[in-house]
Amino acid sequence: MQVDGPGTALMSVLMQPLLVLAALLVAGLTFWALHNGKQRGGKQHDDGASEGVDRTELLLAGALTLATAFVVFNKVGSPQFMVWLAPAVAVGLAHSWREWRVPAAMLIVIAVATYFIYPLFYDALSHNNPWMALVLTIRNILLVVLFLWSVRRLYLLGKRTPAATPVLKES
Question: For the segment 88-146, what is each residue's pLDDT rounded down to a tens digit?
Fold first, then answer.
């Protein structure tokens, strides 16, 4: 099914360049965060603590941001695309439950809304049912919010400063 209406032709033309631009920006943000982490030391201490950015967290945030960008900026709205988001969130929960519970909750709501859209009420949506259009709109807004959350997470990981360590001056 294809959506038609005012502005759809223009948006169809713009979506591919927007998708490429979003992917490049996410890659750039990820590399910036990694570079900042290295600049701040990135040293591993004997007790297992490290300075700089948590590379596992950075990989997970980058993966979620990139996958979400591919869903948000894709002109094809396939319900199967929601599956792309699950691996990064599942591993993120295993890595840091506290940090990843918000995207996990959003992803559950996105998955339930997607299930209502397809396969349950796809026929109603294709016949312009306003309730199903509302469910689809809410799901799409949540996808944008998840994208913004993951962009913010990447940014904060890159900006994070290590705990202050005493500096010994030589006399």
Answer: 999 999 999 999 999 999 999 999 999 999 999 999 999 989 999 999 999 999 999 99
| Residue 37 token pair | 């982490």
Question: Backbone dihedral region of 5: left (phi > 0), alpha (psi from -120 to 50 degrees) or beta?
Answer: left
Can you read off the two tokens belonging to residue 161? 């400063």
Distance CA 105, CA 87 (A): 14
String of DSSP letters for the chain: ----STTHHHHHHHHHHHHHHHHHHHHHHHHHHHHHHHHT--PBPTTS-BSS--HHHHHHHHHHHHHHHHHHT-S---GGGGGGGHHHHHHHHHH-HHHHHHHHHHHHHHHHHHHIIIIITHHHHHTT-HHHHHHHHHHHHHHHHHHHHHHHHHHHHHHPPPPP---PPP-
Answer yes or no: are the C-beta atoms of 64 and 89 closer than 8 Å: yes
As a whole number of angstroms, the distance between CA 122 and CA 108 comes to: 19
Contact in structure between 89 and 100 (CB atoms under 8 Å): yes
pTM to 2 decimal places: 0.85
Given a contact cutoff of 8 angstroms between Cβ atoms, the answer to whether 107 and 89 are in contact is yes
